[in-house]
Amino acid sequence: MLRISSFNRAVRVSNRRYGHSTVGKRPVLTETVQVIKGESGDFTSKLVSKVDLFPGQVLASLEAMTPTDVKRYSTVQTGPDSHVELNSDLLYMNHSCDPNVVLDTDFGVVAAAREIKKGDAITFFYPSTEWDMDQPFQCWCGSPKCLKHVRGAKHIDSKTLNQFALSRHIREMKKEQV
Ligand SMILES: [Zn+2]
């Protein structure tokens, strides 16, 4: 299982390389992933792998991410009070309670959590980065481990949460939660 830690370095690197001028820019990751648009807009769209991947292999880099003060459905949390916009098609990664990728902002990558076949929908576990989500939702992923109501790590008991690969800030925030 991949371990996620220290998001700050990746964010600093991203700032230095891209500044704020790339906000809104969406590099298309044509090499490895493809967005399949749903009929009723963004919320039924999905991201599909164009390649076979073995566990730990990198699917995409997070080079375009930029810090933001505002928590939105499109942001990823990188620390207790910090969030980033992905600024890429990775925005279309859906949640699953049995995810096939880990979003690792320490190394600035999305990596396979298990074997992925070409054509598989790319999913990650939103509470692995999100403490208290801006837009909670009902999950129908079908996994035996399905949380049913996804609201962020804050709302999941430690025993359940620790079954998943978690980012460092989530592990630390859970430890400190009273
Ligand atoms: Zn689920």
The secondary structure category is alpha+beta
Task: Please estimate the helix content.
Answer: 10-25%
Low-pLDDT segments: 1-26
Shape type: globular
CATH homologous superfamily assignment of the domain at 8-126? SET domain
CATH architecture of the domain at 8-126: Beta Complex
Query: In percent, how much strand structure appears in the residues?
Result: 25-35%
The biggest sheet, with number of strands, parallel, antiparallel or mixed sense and barrel status, is:
3 strands, antiparallel
Mean pLDDT: 83
Give, in order, the helices and strands: HEEEEEEEEEEEEHH
Please name the CATH topology of the domain at 8-126.
Answer: Beta-clip-like
Total strands: 12
- Give the C-level CATH assignment of the domain at 8-126: Mainly Beta
Gap between N and C termini: 28 Å
Q: Using only CA atoms, what is the Rg?
A: 15 Å
- Small molecules in complex: zinc ion
Task: Compute the number of helices.
Answer: 3
Pfam family, one: SET
Protein name: SET domain-containing protein
Domain SET: 88-126
